[in-house]
Amino acid sequence: MMRNRPASTLRRPLAASVLVGAVGLLASASPAMAGFKDCSTFLGIPAPAPILQGNIGSPIEGMVVDRSGRLWVTDLLGGKIIRFDRPGASGTVVATIPGGGGGALELLPDGTVIVGSGADPRVLFGDVLKPGAISTVDPVTGTLTPLAKGFSAANGFAVTRDGTIFATNDFASLIGKRAPDGTITTKWASLPSANGAALDKAQKYLYVSRTFFAPGVTRIPIDNPSKPERVLTLQGTDVFAAPDGLTLDSKDRPIVPTNNAGEIIRIDAPEKACRLAKGLPNSSVVAYGKGSVGFSKGRLFRAGFDGKVYEVPAAFDPGA
């Protein structure tokens, strides 16, 4: 059961329900996936199956692990920001986004948690309406402090070492940027259906999934965002897989969850991918742990529109 701080009754935004329903409809209408070759074994020994570590009972959009090894997620429908202090524990509602529609989560360089808002039907017209906003989250009081607004959406975040924030929208095209001095660039880059966001170690590239338009994964040069480079383009029935909120392992290989295919895939080289896990439909985001306790460093966690958080042992990477 999830613990809740005292709060007024919250409405479930119809907006977010429509978006979740759209993904579910696509899944039910999609043909069977061709799938990827299996890479979940080591020396011929199969990795353990994914392990359930948490459940909020509502679709999850964003996820991040803080420096203390606590895992945070956003409730797409109700706008709740929920924290799990250790695997298997009940979740605690830390804050609620006014109007609902929880988006991405990420950490600033000092460890502060940031959250995206505006994950509702306005994102369908996000490039015009620009509903996406970012706030910091006080882990003790639950206070949300506005940090930036005017983005097409805030469905995916990546933060550089100097505090630059990139924000994506899987239902539109504009990728926004907030500079450390607070300057907002609404159109830093344009890529249809860019979703999720992750930076390589050298911070030369921003990696994004392409969920609905020409599905796959792209990397965007930070110094030349008008020249995106495709890393993976799904073919055949795999075009219905719906890649979502990705991360990178210690070798800068993208680890990508898929909504409809229910697989967690790893891209080993351009246009070469393999499957780390299957049987996890509605997967929306993956993230590696941090610290030495709780959701610790090296362990990969997956969250989804099924409201569940799983550990994916096959993706364990002590350097991630």
Uncertain regions: pLDDT < 50 for 5+ in a row? 3-18, 25-32
Give the CATH architecture.
6 Propeller
As for the CATH topology, it is: Neuraminidase
Q: Supply the number of helical segments.
A: 2
Strand content: 35-45%
**From the helix content, strand content and strand pairing, which structural class follows?**
mainly beta
Which H/E pattern describes the elements?
EHEEEEEEEEEEHEEEEEEEEEEEEEEEEE
User: What summary fits the major beta sheet?
Assistant: 5 strands, mixed
How many domains make up the 3D coordinates? Answer: 1
Number of beta-strand segments: 28
- Determine the fraction of residues in helical runs and give it as a percent range: under 10%
The CATH class label is Mainly Beta
Q: How far do the termini sit from each other?
A: 31 Å
Backbone shape: globular
List keywords for this structure.
320 residues, mainly beta, Neuraminidase, 5-stranded mixed beta sheet, 28 strands, 6% helix, 42% strand, globular, disordered N terminus
